[in-house]
Amino acid sequence: MRVPRQCRAAFTILEALVVIAVIGIVASLAIVFMNRFHEEVLLEVRNQRNAQEIAALAMGAMAVGAEVIAENDSETTILNLIEGRNGKQGPFKGKVFRLSYLTSEEIQGAMNYLNWQGGMICYIKD
Predict the structure, then answer these.
(1) How many CB atoms lie within 10 A of CB 76?
(2) Parallel, antiparallel, or unpaired: how do β-strands 120-123 and 114-117 relate?
(3) DSSP assignment, residue 87?
(4) How many helices (H) and strands (E) does the chain have?
(5) Residue 97: enclosing H or E segment and its boundaries?
(6) Which residues lie closer than 8 Å to 67 by C-beta, 6 or more apart?
(7) What's the rounded Cα separation, in Å, for the pair 101 and 78?
(8) Eight-state DSSP code of residue 33
């Protein structure tokens, strides 16, 4: 017994599979795009946090007489902090002011958020 053509109102399996495949392709493209965006944001946040840490550590070290500042030379100042310097006065006399190791890429990224003002290295957002 055949069903008249006008009574069939359902999708065929082939049509359903095509729709599912198209949705899958669009979803995978969206995931790739979001992953790239997420990575860019993570790199920016990492660079900002490293710059904040560099500025804070440099100011603290300078306050206790540790010789970390190479005036108007951010990269040398950062390398001095990575190497570590001892405080020379106050309660932190003899304590080492040291920045955890940063790669050259991380140093360059952090330098985008550092600026010199009055002989001090400062963090700047923009």
Answers:
(1) 13
(2) antiparallel
(3) B
(4) 3, 4
(5) strand 96-97
(6) 80, 85
(7) 10
(8) H
**Of 85, 47, 34, 80, nearest in space to 64 by CA:** 85
pLDDT tens-digit map of 21-77: 999 999 998 888 887 788 888 999 999 999 999 999 999 998 888 888 888 888 999
CB 68 within 8 A of CB 81: yes
Question: What distance in Å separates the CA atoms of residue 80 and residue 71, rounded to the nearest whole number?
Answer: 12
How much is the pLDDT for 50? 94
- The Cα 75–Cα 25 span in angstroms is 45
> What is the distance between the alpha carbons of residues 25 and 18, in angstroms, rounded to a whole number?
11
What letter represents residue 101's amino acid? Y
Three-class secondary structure of residue 112 per DSSP: coil
Q: What is the DSSP string of 36-74?
A: HHHHHHHHHHHHHHHHHHHHHHHHHHHHTT-----TT-H
Q: Which of 106, 84, 42 is nearest to 114 (CA)?
A: 106
Is the CB of residue 93 less than 8 Å from the CB of residue 64? yes
